[in-house]
Amino acid sequence: MKKILEIALGIVTSVGGFLEIGSITTAAQAGADFSLQLIWVIVLGGLCIIFLVEQAGRFAAVSGRTIPDAIRERFGFNYFAFLYLTLVLVSLLVLAAEIGGVCIALELATGIGLQWWALPAAFVIWFVIWKGTFGVIEKGVSMLGLVTVCFVVGAFMIHPPWGQVVQGAVPSLPQHDSAHYWFIAVSILGASISPYLFFFYSSGAIEDEWRETHVGINRVIATSGMSFGSLISIAVLILAAMIFAPRGMKVEHYSQLPELLVPVFGHKGFWLLVASLGIACMGAAMEITLQIAYLTAQGFG
Amino acid sequence: MSVTIFSMVLTAATLPIAIVPFLFLMNDRRYVRSYRNGWLSNAVVIVIIGLAFVLAIVSIPLQIFGGS
Which residues have C-beta within 8 Å of that of residue A163, sequence separation ≥ 6? Predict the structure, then answer.
């Protein structure tokens, strides 16, 4: 019984933490610009992340170390410093984007300009991290993150041509706009296989004190969690493909995002989008911040 | 929106740096003992690294030519 609960919790954590501004944005653009054609990239990214995350979890469970710790030990400080700097720089950029996502959600909700929300949002994130324990943050945010399941519900309710959806899951070459096609593909992969995700997963494993016995569970959690997460990204793409692509609309501004859910959910759709965006980005922002802290602590001893 | 997409592309570009050491770790008995990667896991990671290298090289030009 306890194992089932652990598995369920692990999956929820993985799903809730999967979607963030990067996956939402790249999936929406992909759907708008290339209809259902780019689904295979999300599938590919999903498969990659499943393998990476499973290994990250297995490594942490079996070696009792986190990955940054082990890298420093095995490869020496210089390489680690180089890795560290690169990761921190990119993480900061992504963090900015995530906080931006929270601010956009707040702007959509209240009409108050997003720049006013930047400091309060950052403050709340810092405060929660300071006061909360890892477990509470991880699980609390992930539970809330389940609101993003609304995208999956929406994707079903909009009745996409399922035959074409399946076709989109098979790799294809673009018929037009090659450079743009591959650009979006790359951005989707970057959004899916974010290094922070898999470092964070291994930190989580250590914090939850996984041991060898967890290897089997880890496999289940990693596979299911990342699969569900990918499904949500695909759902966003489908919605964008059904709503934006036929009208030739490009996703250029965040204010367009509610249009993903409004046709299906009506006025509630607006608030669902705001909640999804805000929570997903808030969660991601916290995770990235924690990850930077972990990298620093684990890497420098 | 472009900051977001750009940061995703950058993430893709920096993947190799993190994953290559990881591949070594996953095969190092000192850390993972009997739980070393099977041939499939190793193969997948190598493919991912290859993919990541391609992404790293390709992402900047694509940002210039294919970016929104």
Answer: none
Interface residue A183 vs chain B (CB under 8 A): yes
A190 touches chain B (CB under 8 A): yes
Query: Which of B8, B58, B59 comes nearest A26 by C-beta?
Result: B8
Residue that is written with structure tokens 């037009």 in the block: A176
**How far is A23 from A276, CA to CA, in rounded Å?**
12
Instruction: State the pTM of this model.
Output: 0.80
Residue pLDDT, tens place only, A132-155:
776 677 777 777 777 777 888 888
Helical spans, DSSP H, in chain A: 2-18, 21-34, 39-63, 67-110, 114-131, 134-145, 149-157, 162-168, 178-192, 195-207, 215-243, 262-265, 267-299
B9 contacts A22? CB cut-off 8 A: no
Q: Which residues of A touch B51 (CB under 8 A)?
A: 48, 189
First to last CA, chain A: 37
- Cross-chain Cβ contact A191/B11 below 8 Å: yes
* Structure token pair of residue A159: 């009745």
Question: Two tokens at B9?
Answer: 């592309």
Sign of the four-CA dihedral B23, B27, B32, B34: positive
What is the biggest distance separating any 2 CA atoms in chain A, rounded to whole angstroms?
56
- Sign of the CA dihedral with A41 first, then B59, A287, and B27 last: positive
Q: What ipTM is given for this predicted complex?
A: 0.77
* pLDDT band (50, 70, 90) for residue A185: confident
Distance CA A41, CA A31 (A): 12
CA of B42: which chain A residue's CA is closest?
A51
Question: How big is chain A, counted in residues?
Answer: 301
Residue of B20, B28, B23, B55 whose CA lies nearest to B41: B23
Query: B37 is written with which tokens?
Result: 């990667």
Q: For an interface test with A, which of B4, B10, B25, B28 has the most A Cβ atoms less than 10 Å from its Cβ? A: B4
Tell me the residue type at A129.
Answer: I
